[in-house]
Design a protein that fits this description.
Blueprint (H helix, E strand, L loop, with lengths): L16 H31 L14 E6 L5 H10 L6 H10 L9 E6 L4 H8 L9 E2 L6 H12 L3 H8 L2 H4 L17 E2 L7 H19 L1 H8 L3 H14 L5 H14 L6 H8 L8 H4 L23 H8 L8 E6 L4 E5 L2 H19 L14
Antiparallel strand pairs: 1-2, 3-4, 5-6
Length: about 375
């Protein structure tokens, strides 16, 4: 009985232990949830590195997966699932968490097989041996060279490629191109499917040109200059062939100045195009070639662009530099130092300097500076 006396007191009771037990239960439950989540994530990640027995297709079948610019890792996983390379996007992403380089998987055509563990799929996509080499077209490439390089890369015959070029609407040429493809096969890097047709290949290049033309607002700005977009594209091709990038805008100004004066352009690049050559030193005999592309004999622009100009050349043709120049000469063929002038007499001085430096270059000797001149 004496042991019950303390509990019969009228004082407030001490805090119940049950209150603290509820908090403990909540903390314990939260810890269990975190632990379960961690186990699930680790299990998925481990499964991502192991074969998946749930495949309904035979493993090892060769497939091609195309990753496009802007595709997220999730989008890549979805394409792999669609091609039966892996069976789960989540497992692919879990494997990607274990391989930090997975985020660097870029656009391209990947040669893979069905039935791969997600970790192995990632490893192959990071290995250049499983990625098809892109077709790279540099700026200023002539149509004949574009056809040749494309044939070598794709296995399509030059005859097939040339035939497809005859159908402007099929390859997507704009109406103002009038079915003339020269200049519209934009210089860029292209990931091509192995079974792509000639029309597919050209369409891809023309679509890339459309993007460049839209970015430059080619049609509207050409009209603001007082020229058609086709004329501006032709000027851009001359700029691409004649100058170094730092001089593009000046070369464009010379072209427009001469056109607006009614002078012949007299660009060596057009003579080279007419003859199918690429020489720095154009001879008098070459200048006599009977061709609509010989701007030493024909007034105005050549009938088509003479190559596929890049974005910088197109922009220069749309935004020429300010100046009264009528002539320019690349006085040093090794450094591409180019001088501009409105004076014919000064042009002759520059021309003599080029001829001297060209001979020195052919002899393997250093260039010699010409007389000091004041160049605008």
């Amino acid at each position: 009985m004496s042991q019950l006396v303390p509990f019969l007191s009228s004082d407030p009771l001490p805090p119940s232990r049950n209150d603290r037990s509820i908090v403990r239960r909540l903390v314990a439950a939260l810890g269990i949830l975190v632990f379960v989540f961690a186990i699930v994530w680790i299990t998925q990640a481990i499964r991502g590195t192991l074969p998946d027995d749930s495949f309904t297709v035979a493993p090892g079948i060769q497939v091609v997966v195309v990753v496009e610019s802007g595709d997220s890792l999730t989008a890549v996983g979805e394409k792999l699932v669609e091609a039966d390379v892996v069976t789960s996007v989540s497992a692919f992403l879990a494997a990607g968490e274990l391989e930090e380089r997975a985020a660097s998987i870029g656009p391209g055509v990947y040669n893979l097989v069905t039935g791969l563990p997600p970790g192995e799929a990632i490893a192959r996509m990071l290995d250049p041996a499983f990625r098809a080499a892109p077709l790279v077209l540099p700026e200023g490439l002539r149509l004949t060279d574009t056809v040749r390089l494309t044939a070598e890369h794709t296995g399509l015959s030059e005859e097939q490629l040339v035939s497809a070029l005859q159908d402007g609407p099929a390859i997507g040429l704009p109406g103002w191109a009038l079915d003339r493809p020269e200049g519209f096969l934009f210089p860029a890097s292209y990931d091509l499917l192995p079974d792509a047709s000639a029309t597919d290949v050209w369409s891809l290049m023309v679509k890339r040109f459309d993007i460049a033309a839209d970015e430059a607002d080619l049609v509207t700005r050409a009209r603001q200059l007082g020229y058609t977009p086709y004329e501006v594209l032709t000027v851009a091709s001359l700029v691409q062939a004649e100058g170094a990038p730092g001089d593009f805008a000046k070369v464009a100004r010379v072209a427009y100045n001469r056109l607006e004066r009614g002078d012949r352009l007299q660009f060596d690049s057009t003579v080279n195009y007419a003859l199918g050559t690429s020489t720095l030193l154009v001879t008098e005999d070459m200048l006599n070639v009977d061709s609509p592309y010989n701007t030493y004999r024909v007034t105005g622009l050549p009938p088509t662009p003479i190559n596929s100009p890049g974005q910088e050349a197109i922009e220069a043709a749309l935004n020429p530099a300010d100046g009264d120049w009528l002539y320019f000469v690349t006085v040093d063929p090794r450094t591409l130092e180019t001088r501009f002038t409105a004076s014919y007499e000064e042009f002759l001085v520059f021309k003599a300097e080029f001829q001297r430096n060209y001979q020195l270059m052919m002899q393997g000797e250093p260039a010699q500076p010409g007389p000091a001149t004041e160049t605008p």
